Input
Amino acid sequence: MSMRVKCIANDVDKLNAVEVRKRLAESIHLDGADRSLVVGNTYTVFAVAQWSDGGIRVYLHTIEESDHPRPYPLEMFDMVDPALPANWCVSFEQQPFGVAIKRISFPEWANDDHFYERLVDGDEAAIAIYRRIRC
Output
């Protein structure tokens, strides 16, 4: 089983909630639609993370040629299948108001605060792990 989401919007400016648009505009600097997302397409989720803006991001593989997924605001999707893969883990972090969920993903990512950066930077070991998980 995999968590799956369906894209309902690929343009932050088209989201209905004004406060959500305002919050996302601080971290997403695109004019118009994100062409890597196709409205109506269903995507497998590779990680879920709480971001510093208070929102939730889902990490999706939307660019076939890429060796890593990209983070997208959960508000741009409907949940199709909320089931988490059996081997996924949760990581937590201390915040001023208490403990919060930081990330939910496969163990190598959930337990390593630098896994995503290594993946984006082209680290061969991280890419090998991600490719194995993605298949």
Observations:
- The beta strands are 4-7, 42-50, 56-60, 70-73, 77-81, 89-95, 98-105.
